[in-house]
Structure formats: structure tokens, C-alpha cells
Amino acid sequence: MGENKHIKELDAFAKKYVKEIKQEKPSVDFTVSLMDKIEAIKITASTKVEPLISKKVWYILFIVIVALFFIPFKTSNKEITILDKVDFSFLDKLTSVFAFNGFNVSISNTTVYAFLFFGVMIFLQIIFLKKHFNKRFN
User: What is the pLDDT of residues 9-59, one digit of tens each?
Assistant: First the structure.
């Protein structure tokens, strides 16, 4: 109840002083002068946002991916892979290190290419992000 009485007193006080204040009317050219002042304020140079990877790089990446997809279908020999040229004979020496001597694991070429591509993309992303943040903070 005490709060209501306090609120009513504040309301009466505010009404009393609001009635005493003269009502101000803006001048006839108020809008024009306001717009002139707004136009006079110089617009500060806004931050230009540039994409992290440019359109040129996206186009090159798209062409490379399409080429990697269609080149294997154009060749008549299905055994053309980069991994066939690499000598993995050193792995025979490492088999004694692993406990899986009787366990034969084979990894498809697609999986190896996927991991290689993933590694390359992470490496490129680190390079691009490092350049981006260096430009941003300098």
C-alpha cells in the first residue's frame, strides 16, 4: 500500500511540472536544417570487407576439382595412380614394430587421396587464416 501512495505522489508531481513547461514548436525549416547538418557530417571510411578466398581462387579450385573428377574417366588404363609410383617397401621393415602382424589392413586409394586432400586443405586454410589475421591486427 505504501508503494502505491509513493507512486501517486510521483505521478502528481510529474503532472504538475509537465503542465508548467511551455510547449516548444520547431521552426518552419527545421527538417531542412536538420538534413543539411546530417549531410554535412562526413562519412567515415567504413571497413571494406574482402572475402578470405577470392573469386579467382574459387574458380581455379573448381576447375581443379572438376579436372580431378573427370581425368580418371578419360584414361583407358585404370591403374594410373600416383601411389603406384611410390615405393612402399620400407613398410615391410615396420611390420615387426606393430602388434598386428597377423592382421591384414588394406586402405583404398580413395581413402588415401581423401586424407591427402584433407591435409592439403588444412595447410592452405592455416596459411590463409594467418595472413587474414595478420592483416586484420596490423
Answer: 889 988 888 888 888 888 888 888 888 888 777 766 667 788 888 899 999
Neighbours of 104 (CB within 10 A): 6
pTM over 0.90: no
Residue ranges per structural domain of the chain: 2-40, 55-137
Residue 61 dihedral angles phi and psi, to the nearest 5°: -65, -40
C-alpha cell at 70: 573427370
DSSP per-residue string spanning 7-46: HHHHHHHHHHHHHHSPPP---TTHHHHHHHHHHHSPPPPP
Whether 128 and 52 have beta carbons less than 8 Å apart is answered as: yes
40: region left, alpha or beta (phi > 0 left; psi from -120 to 50 alpha): alpha
Give residues with Cβ within 8 angstroms of 83, minimum separation 6: 109, 112
